Amino acid sequence: MNLLLFGPPGAGKGTQSQFLVERHKMRHLSTGDLFRAAVKVGTPLGQEAQGYMDRGELVPDRVVIGMVREELLQLPQEQGFILDGFPRTVAQAEALDQLLAELKKGIEACVFLQVPHGDLVSRLAGRRVCTGCGAVYHVASKPSAKEGVCDLCGGEVVQRPDDKEEVISTRLATYEKSTQPLKEFYAARNLLAEVDGLGDAEEVLKRIESSLKLA
Fold first, then answer.
1. Catalytic residue among 160, 183, 206, 207
2. Among candidates 134, 88, 87, 125, which has minimal Cα distance to 107?
3. How confident is the model at residue 38 (pLDDT cuts 50, 70, 90)?
4. Helix (H) or strand (E) holding 178
5. Is 160 known to be catalytic?
6. Active-site residue among 36, 123, 128, 171?
7. For the segment 127-144, what is each residue's pLDDT rounded down to a tens digit?
């Protein structure tokens, strides 16, 4: 199955994508991960994307689509995938349709994770990430054993610039403005499933699998 998983920043897309990859052998394609990898390597697209991400703004379509295209070209035709964080606008959705048609692929379902605004702010402001291996922590629900040090690789655990409270509100407002038309876009194609993203991660996974009729 080729799946689009979307929702506001902090909704739990990365966690749920990992569960689906492990249980259903799908490939996780996260634009956030693509951006951060490009930034770490220092590619021209990565440097350009970094400025937008640090300000809590959306990365321009031409940058995003270019990165997604490269990833899909490397994907075996028979392997299902989860797109996480893309598309975020109707323009991107239309560009994705064109790209998938060219590659003889298609989206079979779109899952939107619903989480209230206050919960999103709490999740994002408390999130910490290892600069070495990318492991994710939370100061309240999942702190590292030693503050600032990754349990897995010993790397530095930091707060990402786009998770600072002064940036979060901009991120959420920008997302909400651009996403309502996107939900309507996929609902009109009978592909949209809205799933409650609150509660234990396993509970959310069961809701997603139920909506997709996955065993």
1. 160
2. 87
3. confident
4. helix 165-187
5. yes
6. 171
7. 999 999 989 999 998 999
